């Protein structure tokens, strides 16, 4: 009886896992509406629409920010350029950013957060006036990822620290991840550790080794593995 129960569980997990998209280069992320953004052959794609975006002049995007699905930001580091797209991946405008800009994310009306690796500073940059409005003090650690919004910027460094900066670019909170892998959106309530997915301290899924990147939206786990994107339904407690 125990054997059949275990077999049922394994079979159930297999059916919950869906292969959504094959042979891609990178998973950009999943927005709050469960639209999937990914790079394939230098093009930016979004699930559920037929359009994709390719910039022949600038090439493959270095970074894509989807924190605001109505204003998608694409960074081209070599050209110090950011291109803005709408929710159909249609071109809106583009603007220059300071030399050495490594990361960007949306910060509200006409503004972005950016991390500039020459002076190692987080900056609030107004792309209409082309002026930096706020600087942080120099950041000593190497920055791996950045996310943000109108009220804060969130930085992940190479020491496993998740640092939140307030709207004045001053650090307000530091969280030590302790070998945890967190979602692309840098929301730490979900995390992977030793092949299992946790919600805060509760283990909710196991046997998840080899995941390069993941996101959790509306009780769905999206993950990138071996150049494919999968979705797994998370059991509701």
Summarize the structure.
With 237 residues, this protein is mainly beta. It has 1 helix and 23 strands. It has a domain at 1-30 and 179-237: Thrombin, subunit H.
List the helices and strands and how they pair.
Layout: H1 2-16, E1 17-21, E2 26-30, E3 36-40, E4 43-46, E5 52-53, E6 63-65, E7 72-76, E8 81-85, E9 91-96, E10 101-106, E11 111-116, E12 121-126, E13 131-135, E14 143-148, E15 153-157, E16 161-165, E17 171-176, E18 190-193, E19 196-199, E20 202-205, E21 213-217, E22 220-225, E23 228-233
Antiparallel strand pairs: 1-23, 2-3, 3-4, 4-5, 6-7, 7-8, 8-9, 10-11, 11-12, 12-13, 14-15, 15-16, 16-17, 18-19, 19-20, 21-22, 22-23
Could you state the order of secondary-structure elements as H and E?
Answer: HEEEEEEEEEEEEEEEEEEEEEEE
Shape-level CATH architecture of the domain at 1-30 and 179-237: Beta Barrel
Number of helices: 1
Percentage beta strand: over 45%
What is the CATH third-level topology name of the domain at 1-30 and 179-237? Thrombin, subunit H
Described by strand count, sense and barrel closure, the largest sheet is:
4 strands, antiparallel
Query: Strand sequence of the main sheet, in spatial order?
Result: 1-23-22-21
- Tally of extended strands? 23
- Radius of gyration using CA atoms only: 19 Å
General shape: globular
Task: Provide structural commentary.
The protein is mainly beta and 237 residues long. It has a domain at 1-30 and 179-237: Thrombin, subunit H. The chain is built from one helix and 23 strands. The protein has a four-stranded antiparallel sheet with strand order 1-23-22-21. A four-stranded antiparallel sheet has the order 2-3-4-5, with no helix packed on it. Strands 6-7-8-9 form a four-stranded antiparallel sheet, with no helix packed on it. Strand 8 and strand 9 (91-96) form a beta hairpin. The longest helix has 15 residues, at 2-16. Mean pLDDT is 92; it is low at 1-15.
